[in-house]
Write a structure and sequence with these properties.
The chain is α+β, with helices and mostly antiparallel strands. It is built from 7 helices and 12 strands. A hairpin with a 2-residue loop joins strand 3 and strand 4. Helix 1 runs parallel beside helix 2 and helix 3 crosses helix 6. The longest helix is centred in the N-terminal third of the chain and has 25 residues.
Amino acid sequence: MIKHWPDLPFDAWKDTRATLHMWTQIVGKIRLALNPLRNHWWNVPLYVSPRGLTTGSIPYLSGMFDVEFDFVEHQLIIRTSSGSSVAHALRPQSVAAFYAEFMETLHSLGIEVSIYAKPVEVTDGIPFAEDFKHASYDPEYAHRFWQVLMRAHSVFTRFETSFLGKASPVHFFWGSFDLAVTRFSGRTAPPREGADPITVEAYSHEVISAGFWPGNGGYGQAAFYCYAAPAPTGLDTQKILPAKAFYSSDLKEFILNYDDVVRSNTPNADVLQFAETCYRAAATLAKWDRHLLER
């Protein structure tokens, strides 16, 4: 059997994953600070690039710049519209050292920006300047992680081709450290009791979202997920394909473990089938106008 998707055992790279999570938060917060708010926080994510993860173009004064994690040459690259370019090696380095080096480089390029210098969407977050705990970088697993994101991006892009309604880009949320694509019914969603401002904006409308996380939220392994918000009654009893997919009563989401995708002879088809069948089940139960929303 030819393996189309690389192995990504959680225990083997969990320290690198945790460090990358913090590094991407630092870079992502620069994009957040300088980009105007877009619906559902679409001004925030990173994007899968041919070499890693990128901010895309960030406006600054009369020009723009971008920042890219290059997981091929293992560099953090900052490029400006004035022609300047600086690269730092991605290497075992504490979050505190990465933060100081990155912010100093921005300053040397004439980019002055202030961010909330503490991680979000994590428990017991350590301020970036004080985080000497997370300092791992295994280039092999960083490269594998990007390879998985590339393949997932390709499948999710294919998934979007059959939908005519409002849909998000395929984007990487550095807060939750996952790749996601979201479809919208076009209807507003009921308010979430006790929701914070971030959640209120993210879930202001009915959504069905599919994505990939590399072992987040205490789950302990990489997996594809799909959920509806708000979740229609009976969603947990729906039959989803492929056969190894299941509904997690703890997470309140459908799950397809990444290891099952790696072992499959048809991994791309399995991931696409998972996203499609989850969407159809949720959209049908929630009475989305599928005739208007789908090709």
